[in-house]
Design a protein that fits this description.
The chain has 350 residues and is an alpha/beta fold. 46% of the residues lie in helices and 19% in strands. It is elongated. Bound molecules: 3'-deoxy-guanosine-5'-triphosphate and magnesium ion. The site of magnesium ion (MG) has 5 residues, from strand 6.
């Protein structure tokens, strides 16, 4: 979807958080499927004839009568191909091409300019405004199809490049063994979550969790069985948290940090206790047999109105870690937490 001006406040916040959304795939464009075309043409007869012709050629076509309407449509839906007349009332084709190049859309737009003018200066002006190609009117239909085919090859290339970049990005932020986010992503993303919660005055909870006596599992069943436990641990946690906002990162070997935006202290502790139950209540299957696993938890949460200016990510993580340490010291398989309504006056609660 294009970045619309009328996006709701909530989805705006989500876009800013830029977290779980990274896992979404990029819009699919291949050389085989005809991409959607937006046709901007003010002459009703030409518009109707071209729409009919393009539809017959297999394209999904939306047609509008001027540049402003075209731009409005493009803000709401991604059209990989724009075919636009040059001369139109209000925003003309050249202004439309310029505008399209200045907004952020979900993918590249291949812009084909139709013009009655064939002087070199005009053609250069059209291409410099952002058009990829031009056709002199009256349009010769087989030539239009051939030029659209050339455009589709470019779109398919651009798409595969973007998909490869997307895959690389996912690989660079994911822990290969468990599929959780890696520490690099955590240290990149958590400051943004803190900032976002501060701006919108929402609480934020983080939960540090560590598998109890994990070394024993490795020692008794082998490293590979330990890996099985780590994988299942993460998939159990992922299944039990909100998939569109909460996320888990591998902090160290068998230590993970759960990030729960818009979650206050009580709910943070509730989630930690829920996850603790999910881990301990069902044995883990490993390649070396079943294993009983427990984990310890430390919750650190901001006050209900979000982090104050003094709160740093390191402080939040340290507070969760100290609570986790307390849980370990008191015998493991338990949760301790701290609410930090004011970073300068930390109050510990069990
Ligand atoms: P505690 O209850 O105090 O947390 O004890 P623990 O045994 O869980 O903690 P300790 O720090 O003594 O041992 C953690 C072990 O986790 C040691 C390390 O070899 C193992 N480990 C770290 N990363 C991996 C991994 O990716 N796979 C496996 N199988 N083991 C790992
Ligand atoms: Mg451990």
């Amino acid at each position: 979807m294009a970045r619309c001006a009328d996006r709701t406040a909530q989805s705006q916040r989500r876009a800013e958080s830029d977290t779980v959304l990274e896992m979404e795939s990029v819009t699919s464009i291949t050389a085989d499927t005809p991409p959607a075309i937006l046709l901007a043409e003010d002459d009703p007869v030409t518009r109707m004839l071209m729409t009919r012709f393009l539809k017959k050629a297999g394209y999904d076509v939306d047609a509008v009568a001027d540049g402003a309407e075209a731009l409005d449509k493009m803000m709401k839906r991604y059209y990989p191909i724009l075919v636009t007349d040059w001369e139109m009332p209000g925003m003309d084709g050249v202004a439309l091409c310029k505008a399209v190049r200045n907004i952020q859309l979900d993918g590249y737009v291949y812009a084909l300019l139709l013009t009655a003018r064939d002087s070199k200066e005009h053609i250069i002006a059209g291409l410099e405004a952002g058009a990829d190609d031009y056709l002199v009117k009256p349009v010769h239909e087989p030539e239009l199809i051939a030029r659209l085919n050339a455009g589709r090859r470019i779109l398919a290339l651009e798409h595969s490049l973007r998909a490869a970049n997307h895959r690389n990005r996912i690989l660079s932020i994911t822990d290969a063994l468990t599929g959780a986010y890696n520490r690099r992503y955590l240290m990149e993303q958590l400051p943004r979550e803190v900032e976002r919660c501060r701006r919108y005055a929402y609480p934020l909870s983080v939960i540090m969790c560590d598998i109890d006596h994990f070394k024993r599992i490795n020692d008794e069943r082998g490293h590979a069985a330990g890996d099985d436990v780590l994988q299942q641990f993460v998939s159990r946690v992922q299944r039990s948290i909100r998939s569109n906002s909460d996320w888990i990162a591998r902090y160290g070997g068998e230590e993970f940090l759960l990030v729960l935006p818009e979650t206050e202290y009580k709910s943070g502790v509730f989630v930690a206790e829920k996850v603790r139950g999910i881990i301990r209540d069902e044995v883990f299957g490993t390649r070396m047999g079943e294993a009983q696993v427990t984990a310890s938890f430390g919750v650190a949460a901001t006050g209900p109105n979000g982090p104050d200016l003094a709160l740093k990510v390191e402080g939040l993580i340290k507070a969760a870690d100290q609570c986790l340490y307390k849980s370990k010291q008191e015998g493991r398989d338990r949760t301790h937490g701290i609410e930090i309504p004011n970073s300068l006056a930390l109050t510990v609660s069990a």
